[in-house]
Amino acid sequence: MYPIVDAGGRWYPLFALWTTGRIELQFGTLKSRPPFDQPAVRQELVRRLTAIPGVQIPPSRADAFPKIPMAAISTTSSRKAFLKTFEWAVQQIRAHAAVGGTQG
């Protein structure tokens, strides 16, 4: 399953949930879509995710498709933190699209 945000006519895949019990983060695709085409914005997403206990993403993987175990978000607090992180990401996408930033 891939949750996707459609903003300004551009699709933003956020992560994939696999039946293998892994969550695959879609940084490799996001790196070509503003505002995540900026390394600092991707690194902020990584920072927010790695603040969740049990989530480990090396900064060098901010341009790739790192996987984390679904078990890392099995508690209510970790799941809320994960969802809050992606709410932040969606806000970044929508704010960029609102100013016409996805054109081009």
Key attributes of the depicted protein:
38% helix; 104 residues; two-stranded antiparallel ribbon; three-stranded antiparallel sheet; alpha+beta; 3 helices; single chain
Distance, first to last CA: 28 Å
Structural class: alpha+beta
Global geometry: globular
Q: What do the pLDDT scores average to?
A: 93
Beta-strand content bin? 15-25%
Question: What helical percentage do the residues reach?
Answer: 25-40%
Order of strands in the sheet with most strands = 3-4-5
Rg over CA atoms, rounded to whole Å, is 13 Å
Total number of helices? 3
Largest sheet: 3 strands, antiparallel
What is the string of SSEs from the N terminus onward? Answer: EEEEHHEH
- Counting DSSP E segments of at least 2 residues, the number of strands comes to 5
Structure description:
- A three-stranded antiparallel beta sheet has the order 3-4-5, with no helix packed on it.
- The chain is globular, with a radius of gyration of 13 Å.
- The model has no long low-confidence stretch (mean pLDDT 93).
- Strand 3 (15-17) and strand 4 form a beta hairpin.
- Helix content is 38%, strand content 17%.
- The chain is built from three helices and five strands, in the order E-E-E-E-H-H-E-H.
- With 104 residues, the chain is of the alpha+beta class.
